[in-house]
Amino acid sequence: MNNTKTFKMKKNFTTILFITALIISVTSCKDKAKEANTTVAEAVEETVSTETYFVNKEASTIEWKGFKPTGSHNGTITIERGALDVTNGNIVGGSFIIDMTSITVTDIPAKDEGNAKLKGHLSSPDFFDVEKYPSAGFTITGLKEIEGKMMLSGNLSLKEAENNVTFPVKVANENGAITLSSEAFTIDRTKWNVKYGSKSIFDNLGDKFINDDIELLVTVKAAKS
After folding, report:
1. Helix H segments across the chain?
2. What's the start-to-end Cα distance of the chain, in Å?
3. pTM reported for the whole predicted model
4. Which residues of the chain have pLDDT under 70?
């Protein structure tokens, strides 16, 4: 094979690698959930509601997903209790208690040793320290349409930290029940003192870091008592 053919083959191979890398990069950016707008906790305005809808624990959940260079893990967290304040069919306030002791891992079979190991680590002081902080809280501070999307804002309190987050949701009010379902969004866990394995906090982690962003998908179902 002459040098000209060899050069062309190398050039074509390099081009293929570049295009493949570009496709992967674009796909990754497209698939990644947007980070919720996060600000300091806001004052909760007192609202006057005409109806109260109580959270259905069995039908409500928070799905989580965490990332690291070698892959990801996912699971669920239970919404223990809560209520929505409603006036004329519209949500005007509300709050929820999140049971941090209920965290589960769903991408590893329950019978595998790795499932219990990961759940234990997430429950430990390295992450959510559920023995010291068994509950987290979310209090609604606003719900309004922005550029064609309903945006829910609320104060999320976790591990002695509280920040206001805003993320897109859909609201359905049918047959005396309200379903509040979010799009997938992310939060920066370090803003709630969950710092283990964060390369933005610790140096020299190499490829052993864990992404700061945690992806969340929230579903809340509530009905009149």
Report:
1. 3-31, 113-123
2. 81
3. 0.84
4. 1-32
